[in-house]
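Reader question, answered in our methods column.
A reader sent in the components of a multi-part assembly and asked whether the whole thing could be modeled at once rather than chain by chain. We filled in our standard form and ran it. Here is what they sent:
COMPLEX SIZE: two components
ENTRIES:
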Amino acid sequence: MKIRNEVTVPAPLEQTWSLLLDVPRVVRALPGATVEPDGVEGVYRGDLKVRLGPVAMEYEGTARLEDVDEDEHVASFLVEGRERRGHGGATATIVNRLVPTEEGTRLVVETDLSVTGRAAQLGRGLMEDVAAGLLDRFAQGLETAVLGREEEVAPSELDVGAAVWEPLLRRYGPIAAAGVGGFLLGLAVRRR
Amino acid sequence: MTYVGRPLPRAEDVRFLTGRARYLADLEEDGVLHAAFARSPHAHARLVEVDTEAAASAPGVVAVLTGADLAGVGTLPSGSVEDGVVADAGHPVLARGVVRYVGEPVALVLAESRAAAEDAADLIDDRYEPLEPVLSPRDESNILVRWSRSRGDVEGAFAKADRLVSCSFTIPRLVAAPLEGRGALARYDAAEDVLVVHCSAQDPHRPLAHLSHALGRDPERIRIVIPDVGGAFGSKGAIGPEVVAVAAAALRLGRPVKWVEDRLENFLAAYQGRGLEADAELAVSADGRLLALRAHLHADLGAYLYPTTPVSGHTTAMLLTGAYAIPAAEVTLVGAATNKPPTGPYRGAGRPEAALVIERLVELAARELGVDPFELRRRNFVPREAFPYETALGWVYDSGDYERCLDRALELLGIEDRRAEREKARAEGRIVGIGAGMVIERCGGLWESARVQVEPGGGVVVWTGSSPHGQGHETTFAQIAADELGIAPDDVTVRWGDSHEVPPGIGTFASRSVAMGGSAIVQACRELRETGASSVEVRFESPLLFSSGAYAAAVEIERATGRLHVLRLVAADDPGKVINPLLAEGQVLGAVVQGLGECLAEEAVYDEEGQPRTASFADYKLLTAAEIPSVATAFVETPSPHNPLGAKGVGEAGAIGTPAAVANAVADALAAEGLPGLDPPFTEERLWQALNAREG
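And here is the structure of the entire assembly that came back:
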């Protein structure tokens, strides 16, 4: 699945660019993620905890800086992760493109994501919302890092529930409503 | 007083409605181990390693089994098709070497509680190398079923035809979605050397044969017991590899093992229905005669063949001439392996696909010729005086009166009023249509068993080889026995489902229970009366039976949203002699709702990597009462000559006629907009896009 996110960072292009390539620093700004250099140039090892309501997923894996175009300011990462418990995983190619604007720098993130396992199966459509929420936080994290405010972000896991609350309600709301309706109807019938 | 033909309420409902039914999950066994499966996350991958160490040492875990541990267990049988070639591609019990669909069982954890088993299953470290998945049935890289037949002068008919109409169809996969999923409780009785398996299935006989095949165990040393079953719709006609694994584990560990499928597992791994692509054409004369039919069917069979997998495509192929006297036909069926769960029968099992193809073609032909589609049908029906009638493809229809069914359906629809409304609505710019679909329901066939015994207290016990899962056997079979013996239905006890109690039989599928199981009871009762014996056991045999019917629908499509409203739906069914009109109508209505689901919402979707996109009820939509229009039903009765009841069958008719009628009504509505017809499901998105495609 392909996802596109955009965020404008209030910092000049060159400053944003150098930050984008400082992977550990960017990742630190993403709640629930930890990362450390793998020993190989441009490869990082880390993990990510994501919670969506009652469903918690923990991934371990690697991020690899695949391609860096200094002139065009395009950097692409290959991220591969496996669920620590369970049988699924995720692979993402993330292409980051920086464009100078009047307010600072626009970051365009284009992601090609494939997910397997329970995360993919439990509301496949929802997964797209979750991934979009995650990348949105990534872009925000970059902004936070540019502003030097990393310490403000502390949670040990990323609760994307908040990010996808609205689509969640849209998708599951009618079912919940039908359930509540059925329950009330059941009560009414029993009372007669 | 006679009871057959009377609308007696269902005797079994007292048990079901007061919570006293006993389903598989309700069964208890001392010392039971609970099973949970680790399943493939990939549609197609090399299975590199399954490390079970962490899982095996988790709290409460007694054993973890992999494909290597069960290397001595065989696959499920592959099934067969008359005059067809079927590959040996039975489902393995646990994957070894390669996984072929998301959800394929890879390892089995046995623990003291279900929770411990599930937690430990997550600790299994399974590693894969992904392979390219095959997803389209038109990808013929691995053919599992091949069948073709050509009868009559097909080429000559197409050469001399005045008009040709052709159409391609894509009929999506559907999930059966029974309220109760699959499940099994297996126990090895060492004293008797008998493996006892309780499982949620459509009969005890096929699970017994399948287990015997996979385990290499003498069928005499296996006992199958079917508890109350919360729906099957065809999906429990063959046991899954999970049941084999559970039975093998019980034998190996010497402790009872229980597996109760959860909803996610049912979506991922239970076999699915439909999944067919078809290219079909009709040769038609200028005066409206259907001269010949030609079709290529591509069945999306999934990764493996269950014993029931090859059947549906063959049924579709054989029924493609429908209710019509088409003298020549040529059909090829290619069943392709795909990296999705296997397919198998689901309510209708090949019949709805055939009805959709031939009925859409007939209405296309009517449009092409500029004649009334109902008139074109009448001109080509197998006439009522032609029975028994052998179709071009070789099945012999036993009885029917198709014109009377169509008359009755159009009367119920109020065809003249609906036409007037259609004209008026179209003048107002609304998108409305009317369509019909004829039903041919292959049912019965083979044989069925019954044992009838008079008890010392005067009551009668009937053991049947047939086995209920919602059909109401306890009511209809008691009515039948009561009339034969001159007693009341209350004096009859109907028993089924325990292979050590009931005589060997066939089971409940293909709308066969009343005609086959009921007729066996009639035969046993008559022998009982004639001989004066206190107990008689019989086998009743019969050729195939062919129920029929006509369905019609009036629909409106909202121009702004694409939403389809089925305004009116009618069903005129000929199931032969009706034993209980209340239950027969219940069967029609239930199947109509499933047919409507197929029209409006249902579709099992897989993405380009073979990952399921519809693995929960949030993504796979079932209809609710809010979407069901009022349905008018009627029965026409042309008795079958092949059994003493004159019965045929009615369990699937609604699922056969509804999609064809609604698809034709939608095509009629779209035609007024200058647009071609579409395949189901007719979702808002699909219809909106069709309506808006012209603009851009």
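What stands out: Chain A touches chain B at residues 1, 85-89, 114-118, 120-126, 171-172, 175, 178 (CB under 8 Å). Strands of chain A lie at 2-9, 33-37, 43-52, 55-69, 74-83, 89-100, 105-116, 158-159.
Send us your own complexes using the same form.
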